[in-house]
Design brief:
With about 260 residues, this protein is mainly α. It is built from 12 helices and no strands.
Length: about 260
């Protein structure tokens, strides 16, 4: 691997015009991800990483220094790639529901084809020390804040009532564990899975494609302030007959109280 020591801190890039260095680095990170996925960070050794990547042990130490740096580069590349792609997709889209759908699809499209990477990120979330963790934490906070703002926008636009943080963390719990159960034969493509998860998040279980057109018609006829989906069931005003029953009940209770 012909890279000079001065380029060791260069950010990982997988752009179409990537250099030979970028391609080779991507290969090493790919193989390192596989090792961490199979053996765990603590169980993996630099010798394991050397064998998997095809790079000499001496070369691996020279260019990367430690397995911690490799884990750092894996996490940085992953979160940076997802974040940059998300920002591109959200640009120019204003509808709150569509923006949340984009967030979910962007996340799933990456991790459906990188399930080993998702497992490593989930299991080795707290493995980074020595200053590496602060940079990764900053990227993750930005990603979280974007999702939180999307939920806040939906709540404000639709006048819904739910806790945005709870909604965001529940969403992450849903999309971050697909590596434990996802099967393309049963669950479809990343796009199809994203559509189903988006419907569950935005409308609740039971509002599948069969009911989407009916739900869309109901939304047109629903008062703007009514709650639905994340905000719960619509608030319906009592009919006039029901109001009369409520008045009658109140009057009867007052008479009974006076009699006592």
């Amino acid at each position: 691997m012909s890279i000079s020591p001065t380029t060791r801190n260069r950010p990982v890039s997988l752009q179409p015009d990537e250099s030979r260095f970028d391609r080779r680095l991507s290969e090493i990170l790919f193989h390192a991800t596989g090792v961490f996925c199979d053996k765990g960070y603590e169980g993996a050794s630099m010798r394991d990483l050397s064998r998997a990547s095809g790079m000499s042990l001496a070369g691996l130490y020279h260019y990367f220094g430690s397995k911690e740096r490799l884990l750092y580069l894996i996490q940085k590349h992953t979160f940076s790639t997802i974040l940059e792609e998300l920002k591109k997709r959200l640009a120019g889209v204003t509808d709150p529901e569509e923006r949340i759908r984009i967030f979910i699809q962007n996340h799933l499209e990456y991790f459906v084809t990188n399930q080993s990477g998702l497992k490593v990120l989930a299991h080795e979330d707290e493995a980074l020390k020595n200053g590496f963790n602060s940079e990764i934490a900053a990227i993750k906070r930005e990603y979280y804040r974007i999702c939180l703002h999307l939920m806040d926008d939906l709540k404000r636009e639709r006048k819904l009532d739910f806790n945005s943080r709870t909604a965001v963390m529940s969403l992450f719990g849903m999309i971050n564990w697909i590596y434990t159960w996802y099967n393309p034969r049963q669950d479809g493509t990343a796009k199809a899975l994203a559509q189903q998860m988006s419907t569950i998040v935005l409308s609740g279980v039971g509002c599948g494609t069969v009911h989407q057109n009916r739900a869309a018609k109901r939304r047109k006829n629903t008062p703007h302030g009514a709650s639905r989906g994340l905000g719960g069931a619509p608030r319906v005003k009592p009919r006039s007959g029901e109001r009369e029953i409520e008045k009658f009940g109140g009057a009867a209770r007052r008479k009974a109280h006076a009699a006592r």
